[in-house]
Amino acid sequence: MSDTEVSPGVAATAAWVEEFVVRLNVCPFAGREVTRGSIRYIEVDGRRLEDALVALMEACHHLETTPEVETSLLVFTRGLADFDDYLDALAMAEALLADRGYEGVFQLASFHPDYVFDGVDDDDPANFTNRSPWPVWHLLREEGLERALAHYPDPEAIPERNIERLREIGSDSLAERLAELKARFR
């Protein structure tokens, strides 16, 4: 794959951000970054945890040295397909961020095709707030997040508003949307 080619996993994830996250306003701050072109998508092989963690540290360094990039999405096109394995790897990634002094600098948001919130039924549409075509670690600048939240009315209401909207759409329709995105970019 050349430098200008985009992998199917990255293409599907970028489309998911635009067609799901932005269009449904799941994250009211994502549209601005899509428009600015300040999102970096990185394909990562997650079959070896060490490689995933190295990619995370490289993404942190890139954000530190590239102010025009606001956020990075590490897209795991291989490995971490099992949700429990993904959560274990995520916990290690968060511990590594803290260990390397990035706590309060960067934050990880997590997305997975099989995401299920603790205490929520598997088929509850609320889970789709964190479901994506591929497993993803979303590395955010805390400073940028705080700035965005300071200018947004009632940010605490975002999760509940999203849950209501996704429950109105329904699990079957949401699952079809994700499957279509992934299939479109095979």
Largest sheet: 4 strands, mixed
Strand content is 5-15%
The helix/strand series, from N terminus to C terminus, equals HHEHEHEEHHH
SS content category: alpha+beta
Order of strands side by side in the largest beta sheet? 1-2-4-3
- What number is the mean pLDDT? 93
Q: What distance separates the N and C termini?
A: 14 Å
Number of strands: 4
Low-confidence stretches: none
What's the oligomerization state? single chain
Account of the protein in words:
This protein has about 190 residues and is of the alpha+beta class. Helix 1 packs antiparallel against helix 7 and helix 3 crosses helix 4. The longest helix is centred in the first third of the chain and has 17 residues. The protein is globular.
Question: Which properties best describe this structure?
Answer:
single chain; 186 residues; alpha+beta; 4-stranded mixed beta sheet; 7 helices
Give a short summary of the structure.
The chain is an alpha+beta fold.
How do the strands and helices of this protein lay out in sequence?
Layout: H1 8-22, H2 30-36, E1 39-45, H3 49-65, E2 71-78, H4 83-99, E3 106-111, E4 136-141, H5 142-150, H6 158-169, H7 171-184
Parallel strand pairs: 1-2
Antiparallel strand pairs: 2-4, 3-4
Helix pairs in contact: 1-7, 3-4
